[in-house]
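During the reporting period, our protein records have gained a structure token line. A sample record is set out beneath this paragraph:
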Amino acid sequence: MKKSLVLFLTVLLLCALAACGSTPASTKPADSPMPAGPAAASEEEEGKSSLESEAETLASTLPGIDRAGNEIAIPKEIHKIVSLLPAVTELLCDLGLSNRIICVDPDSLEYIAGLKADVAVCNPLVPDIPKMLTLAPDIIFTDTRMDSSGVNMYKSAEEAGICVAEIPSSHTIGSIEDDIQFVADCVGKTMEGETIVAEMEIDLQKIASTGRTISDPKTVMLEFSGLPSIKSFGTGVYLNEMLELIGAQNALDGEIGWVTLEEEQALEADPDVILTAAAGTDTDAVEEILNRPGWENITAVQNLEVYAIDRSSCLFPNQHLIEALREMAEAVYHSPS
């Protein structure tokens, strides 16, 4: 009897212990995915909506008209670019798109850093359209479609479905800023373009503020090539506006637009300061002017007020004109703006 009772109690105790140590089974494995429900579907719809919104935003910023007033159809995705304008080439590189540039003009190749080693080169005055068709760009930036006789040089490219965006020479800084934004919009970099223009405006205001403190403006002649034919500019050119911003006066303000001067015209202008952005080394350009026969009586030469400034910052109208402005201000008034 005792043995039976002990056996019974032992079995009862083991059952009790087993019951205490067990836990209810989980209703689902710990790592099983949550069933797709309204929340998951909502997140998926939000993702799609966001992508659609981005696409709509890009489409809304793509220009439908180029800077010459021509209707254009820009692809939503730009992978290959032909830039036959150094100012545009430099801007594209600053926007981080140098790897997409497949063809440039000779000046871009000479002055713009960061281009691919195998970039093709085309003369913008006589563009090699068959070559461009072989390259199959998404967009071509040029300053004019027409040749000297009024024939559209890019007709076959346009017929092949290539977008040709024309950007004529701008005559004011405000127009240059519009050019910058246009290019940025074309290549899907609208916000970056807005930032560049906004930073330009801040710098321009600072420089203009300093320029307004000048009570006795110096006369300045800026030349891009030397004798026998001196290339410079009068009014109606963005560079004239730049001289005014730093508080100087264009010694050739009686001229209009880009001009080629005879030596006598330059002597008659008698500038207080001569700036040179001629090709070649800075030292050679300055020494050439200081040692020109018959120029010893010009005020700038007498006072050794002849300075070299960066050629590309002057002649490539984009955001880097701010650098040229600073160089001008330092050279003319010997203090950075």
Observations:
- Residues 1-35, 50-55 have pLDDT under 50 and may be disordered.
- Residues 38-61 form the longest helix (24 residues).
